Amino acid sequence: MLGYVKWQTFATQDNPNRFYIDASGGLREGLELFRNWYVEPLFDYLDEKLDDGNVVLATLTRYKHKVEWYRRDEVVALYEGDTLRGESRLKKHMFEFLFDQGLPFHVEPTTASGKPDVVSLDDSEHPFIGEVKIFDPARSKGPSDIKKGLYQVFRYCWDYNEPLGHLIVFNVSNKQLRVELPSAPDGIPRFEYNHKTIFLTVIDVHEHERRASTRGIADTVTISAAELVHEVEAEVGQVKS
Prior knowledge:
Largest sheet: 6 strands, mixed
Strand order of the largest sheet: 1-2-3-4-7-6
Radius of gyration: 22 Å
Shape: globular
Helix content: 40-55%
């Protein structure tokens, strides 16, 4: 934080030759000290934060691919075997994979806004705030649950003072879930609002009877970015009131 403040102050001053370091070696030594004290620590901090976020996102993407390519029948059977506890069973399946990949976390810790499904902070090298939802409109788990889940992640990010969060959705229905959000470079949709970024990972576990080339046009449920913003603003307004 100190490096950011110093860098910002220097960048906005009128005199570009002015430094806040009294160096006996003149301008060259002043530049060197400024870089060592402020620029490099800030760069290292940002680089580490970005790497942490990439590790979590890459691990979730690997889990998505593993389930969709090799474990689809296994995962959907977990859900269909007990739909009342289906969400908890799929969470446990995901938690086991994350643990095996070396991501230590706390399951359902309590915060001021409730209980996020997974958090890895404090002693963790890779900060991770996540919420899991089921998309199953036939059993009343539809778009409203997804929008609510995204707001929950947003609130948990505020509670933990973290810039990144993850919403993981298991789509167990025969409908395609489409959320109108911009994508990260690796194709994962992301929601950005008030200095928080929430990545949306949708895992399709429905057992399709036909190949993709012969299914025809899928029945699609669409959630717009405007709906998500409205959900967040409405919930924040209720909290403030």
